[in-house]
Amino acid sequence: MIRLGDLERAVMDVLWDGAGGGHTVRDVADALKDRGLAYTTVMTVLDRLAGKGMVERERAGRAWSYRAAAPREAYIAQLMLDALDLAGSRDAALVRFARSVSGTEAEVLRSALSDEAGGGKQ
């Protein structure tokens, strides 16, 4: 799984939080203006994220248009699975995790497991 650095995460947050359409380098740079990043820095980060498969790009006139290759939830789910792989016992880690979530979160997990057992997919 690809681990994102702070700047990569900030760029991905712009893409994830934006509407489903693509974003130019200028769009992302403007969204991150409080960081004082150069346009070329944002362009480099987006290019690297494209190389890692985190973003997809297509030509939009003379510029590239970028969008996240997968939703944020898919990325976070993969991080969670990768963390489980680090555990000595996946079962023990899952039990500890399940006991640490709120009542509402536990209900979401129960519902997802129930849907999966019934043949539905989330």
Automatic annotation (TrEMBL):
Keywords: DNA-binding, Transcription, Transcription regulation. GO terms for molecular function: DNA binding. InterPro entries: BlaI_family, WH-like_DNA-bd_sf, WH_DNA-bd_sf. Pfam families: Penicillinase_R. GO terms for biological process: negative regulation of DNA-templated transcription. It comes from the Bacteria. Gene3D superfamilies: 6.10.140.850, Winged helix-like DNA-binding domain superfamily/Winged helix DNA-binding domain (1.10.10.10). Belongs to the BlaI transcriptional regulatory family. This is Transcriptional regulator.
